[in-house]
Predict the structure.
Amino acid sequence: MIDRFSNKVISRLTLYHCVLVDYIEQGINFVSSTKLSKLLNIDDSQIRKDIKLLDYKGKCKVGYSVKDLKEIIEKRLTFSKNKDVFIVGAGNLGLALAKNDNFDYYGFNILALFDSNDLKTGISIDEKQIFHISKLPDLAQRLGVKIAILTVPHSQAQKAANFLIDSGIKYIWNFTQCILDVPEGIHVWNENLIGHFLQLTIDDTQIES
């Protein structure tokens, strides 16, 4: 069912979900598209369109049930479906991601990390072992892992991606600043950390129309 949603819709739905989780913790039972719009700086008409895609309707003059909307988003975005993942690159970013407990909530099960540095292999991070990169093809095949998070240096990114693809990885979450050249059938999501930071900090008076 997730196939019908574009990447942009999925991204917005996950933002709505974050708000809903906070509201449940605060004991808030209903939320309006207007409130979500103010919190997230997303046009309220767009929010209503997104929620309509879930085949869910709110109550007139009341809004959306926080509990119901949260559960519907989780179901439609397959939060409960287990997704086994490898992290490739055990540097600072890779280690930080391995320690992120939020992945479990969304069904991402990080099984292990991989690195080319022999000094790092054998170490465990939150019960996730770091293996030498040469071990990845065998483990990917035996465990049926198709998803990898790529956190290697820019200079090694394309070579690492080629290795992952040859090892049977079909989905790459790319945290490097390299635009990967991959064959058809391989799915890459580029996490543009620098771009997002610049969007946050740049003075909009300097942006040319």
Observations:
- DSSP finds nine helices and nine strands in the chain.
